[in-house]
UniProtKB/TrEMBL annotation:
Pfam families: MS_channel_2nd. It comes from Alishewanella maricola. InterPro entries: LSM_dom_sf, MscS_archaea/bacteria_type, MscS_beta-dom_sf, MscS_channel_2nd, MscS_channel_C_sf. Residues 293-342 form a coiled coil. Homoheptamer. This is Small-conductance mechanosensitive channel. The chain crosses the membrane at residues 12-31, 52-72, 78-99.
Length: 352
């Protein structure tokens, strides 16, 4: 009888802990199914808040289990303090681990140094932002590759962001001292204007032993055509200089080649040839996923603004107008839901 009584007391003692553990496990499993498992195709951008919610629920579950331990109050407080110390230690000393990337991702969401669709450069990597996740940020490079950059690297390294309002496009070249800089400056400015750049300017970067280094720059308003604009500027520079008989060649190389002294290395066809492809074809091929992601974010922002405006009008509307506004509000919310539930590769901007 005493043994049975002891077993019953032990069961009653550990029963709250077992019930709490079962409830916490069930809640975490259900939350994982609804928050993560059913939205695996949404990408890191939309999974970010869901992952944060899952992490918060997990920490709350650990604390709930600690509170249900069959120990004295002082021991329970020590266990909770130990859990807090471990969590603090993980966040403090994990400079290159999971939690440091989570903290860095949260910091990027707060500071907002860039957004989806922006051109950024991190070290030698250059591309457009596709997704901003909890652990990393995905960009699409000039080779159409998708590169995942850890968030800790974005926080600890200088990130160059191309402004959406416009950027400077430039190229450099070296010419001999036999060509006057005023003539070169005029031709380079003409090349920049022909490549549709605004406010062009020329700089002399270096006076070398055998050549002068020039730099031609101009403002590009449509930053989405950045790759094409760089290539087009170089083409226009070639056409402008070669059209005036100015040779783009190192003088040291000229003294070594076996050609007549008055010979020039200039292409035979000096007239620019109209390309058969359309403009900005490079960007449409290279940054296709980044472009879709940016269009999706812009469409979502537009729908959210329309929903907010419709809700405001609904509060001030009369009875005969409320039904129409409610139908419009429902339609906008349905469009936003469809946009949120559609993967990036299949998302299209809804009709406005």
């Amino acid at each position: 009888m005493s043994l049975l009584q002891t077993v019953n007391e032990t069961i009653l003692l550990f029963l709250p802990l077992a019930v709490t553990a079962i409830i916490v496990t069930a809640i975490l499993w259900i939350a994982h199914v609804f928050l993560i498992q059913r939205h695996q195709d949404d990408g890191n951008e939309r999974l970010f808040p869901r992952q944060l919610a899952m992490l918060t629920l997990t920490l709350m579950g650990v604390i709930a289990i600690a509170l249900a331990l069959p120990v004295s109050d002082s021991s329970r407080n020590q266990v909770i303090g130990l859990i807090g110390l471990v969590i603090s230690g993980v966040f403090a000393f994990s400079s290159s681990t999971l939690f440091s990337n989570i903290m860095a991702g949260t910091m990027l969401r707060v500071t907002k140094p860039f957004r989806t669709g922006d051109f950024i450069q991190v070290g030698e990597l250059f591309g457009r932002v596709v997704e901003r996740g909890l652990l990393d940020t995905e960009i699409q490079t000039e080779n159409r590759e998708l590169v995942a950059i850890p968030n800790t690297l974005l926080v600890s390294t200088a990130v160059t962001v191309t402004r959406s309002s416009g950027c400077i496009v430039s190229t450099t070249l070296s010419l001999g001292y036999d060509v006057h800089h005023a003539q070169v400056e005029t031709l380079l400015l003409q090349a920049a204007e022909n490549s549709q750049l605004t406010d062009p300017f020329v700089q002399v970067l270096e006076l070398g032993n055998f050549a002068i280094t020039y730099k031609i720059s101009g403002m590009l308003v449509d930053v989405k055509s950045l790759l094409s604009a760089r290539s087009n500027l170089r083409k226009q520079v070639l056409d402008a200089l070669h059209g005036e008989g100015i040779e783009i060649m190192s003088p040291s190389f000229m003294s070594q080649r076996k050609v007549p002294d008055d010979g020039k290395v200039i292409p035979v066809g000096r007239q620019p040839i109209t390309p058969s492809h359309t403009e900005n074809v490079a960007e449409s091929v290279v940054f296709d996923k980044a472009e879709e992601a940016e269009q999706r974010e812009n469409a979502k922002a537009g729908l959210q603004a329309q929903i907010a405006e419709c809700e405001q009008r609904l509060g001030d509307a009369k009875d005969e107008q409320k039904e129409l506004l409610q139908q419009q509000l429902k339609m906008l919310k349905d469009q936003l839901k469809i946009l949120n539930d559609t993967p990036v590769e299949q998302a299209e901007s809804p009709a406005q």
